Amino acid sequence: MNIDVARYRRPLIVAAACAAAGGLILFGGWLWYSAVQTRGLSAYAEAMTHAQASQAQGSGDARARAIRELEAVLAQYPSNVAAGQAAYELGNLRYLNREYPAARGAFEVALAKGAKGALRTLSRAGIAYTWESERDFAKASAAFRAALEGLRPQDFLYEELVLGLARNQELSGQKEAAVATYRGLLQDLPRARRSDVVRARLAALGVASEP
């Protein structure tokens, strides 16, 4: 029986050619993506350096320039790995300008970009502080509770966030909740750095440090 080997080889050759072309396309796509990420990282690094410098200078004009630069780079490279950090820096600058809704929006963008670890905690805390600065103490309390989700007493910012929650509970007239939060902090962190502040607040509320 004669078998036309060429007949069977042609589909294989075509398939191999397609696979090779696909591989080249994927490799080219990776190179393009890598180049875009690299350019983006460079742009973000420059923008964030200017942002941090503007905070140190305390100049409104410098902050305004840094804000424009951060917004531009976020618009140009929205998927870059540094986008979350840049959005957080933008939130800080907006907060310093007392632009609280805009600051909150930037912190929310940082979270939406997948902020993790300390950056996630800082962004959540930033949201809480914007509500507090707007004197919406109920929303601030809710935001501080959200920031505390998943944190342990020894974790970064835990003490500050609990104090923020208790303070806003006080300010919104939730005395019993504030007392419970203050006492809970003393139980969780007997050697809290600001335990004197906690005891002073409990005394001001007319209750003892322990039930």
Description:
The chain has helices at 5-57, 60-76, 83-96, 100-112, 117-133, 137-148, 158-171, 175-188, 195-204. By secondary structure, the chain is an all-alpha fold. It has two domains: 29-115, Serine Threonine Protein Phosphatase 5, Tetratricopeptide repeat (Alpha Horseshoe); 137-211, Tetratricopeptide repeat domain (Serine Threonine Protein Phosphatase 5, Tetratricopeptide repeat, Alpha Horseshoe), CATH 1.25.40. It starts with a helix and ends in a 7-residue tail after the last helix. The model is unreliable at 1-33 (pLDDT under 50).
End-to-end C-alpha gap: 97 Å
Major sheet: none
Strand content: under 5%
Number of strands: 0
Q: How big is the Rg? A: 26 Å
Q: What is the N-to-C order of secondary-structure elements (H for helix, E for strand)?
A: HHHHHHHHH
CATH superfamily of the largest domain: Tetratricopeptide repeat domain
How large is the count of helical segments? Answer: 9
Anisotropy-based shape: elongated
Please identify the top-level CATH class of the largest domain. Answer: Mainly Alpha
- List unreliable stretches of 5+ residues: 1-33
| CATH topology annotation of the largest domain | Serine Threonine Protein Phosphatase 5, Tetratricopeptide repeat
Mean pLDDT score = 83
**By helix and strand content, what is the structural category?**
mainly alpha
* Architecture per CATH nomenclature, i.e. the level-2 architecture of the largest domain: Alpha Horseshoe
Number of discrete domains: 2
* Helix content range: over 70%
